[in-house]
Design goal:
The chain is globular and about 60 Å long. 21% of the residues lie in helices and 36% in strands. The strands form five sheets. A five-stranded antiparallel sheet has the order 5-6-11-8-9. Strands 1, 13, 15 and 17 form a four-stranded antiparallel sheet that branches. The relative contact order is 0.27. It contains seven helices and 17 strands.
Amino acid sequence: VDETQMTNLTELWVVDHPIGTRVVPDVDGKLHTVSAPQSLLSAHDAEGHDLLPWLRSTDHLIWEPPPVADASGNLQGDIIMTFPKPAGATQVKLVANATTGLWGSIMIKKIVGLRGRDVGMFYFALNHSNSIRKQLTAWEEREELYRLKVYVEEPTGWVVRGILPGTGTFNSMDRILPLDVSHVQGDQLRIRIHPPAGFWALNSFAVDYTPDRPVSVQKLKPATAQDLQGRDVLADLAAVDGRYLAMPNIGDTADITFLAPPARTGTERAVFLHTRGYYKLHVSGTGEPDNANLKAFQKVPGSTVRFAAAQYGQWQIANKQEP
């Protein structure tokens, strides 16, 4: 991607866990065990399409509608998923394999680029103001472009019980979102999401009601690290500090090795890459800011996804693509 990637920490989490379980991180990085996953019973969108073949397993069938309005003119999806629910269950681990869609990823750079010569001030404000960051998060949750609300059906109606953040477009993985289901009645759990068209790629959803089992976690620092030119960059990646490995060019790489600890008898092993850092988009930072669109994004719900759909239509025309 055309951006500068700044990596502060790189380590491996080696997790030895009970045989017959899986280890899956939640959206905050906490590790959970999955012992008895239960699959979807049904999944439908607002137009009645059966999405079960798309969402029941992690595979190459991914539900990713383009940013085009449906037959009713809606750009905001409406998907209802039904799962089994044991009697007395009060908590559930929703296992979600969902990530930011390709067009949604493209729109990040496009939206930032609308700030023109003010983009530097935008970055400065994000880096130095808690309130500005909170405003951005609130906007993301309102629009659900990069933070998807998860609703649970209760006797009083649909209630937001969790937020699923987006991830890198080409790096979809299972994540757990713990949900309170103590108010749900009956033997079924119904979950609802409203993904904006073009912004989400949905692969699979499952639930697990079992309590977390004990696991052993060893956090490994790198033994060696070299960048593309063969320079030693171990110190840049070894700790949470002010040092970063900068990768400004497409194709930049680093080769890192770790010393593997011996296996533990009677367990299975999972290995997670844990990193910290950020990226800075390569935008021109010139020209007049598009204040009309930027103000609409903030004040008019749904305006951003309509902008993205219009951009998609222009892209189709420019590339002679059929809708």
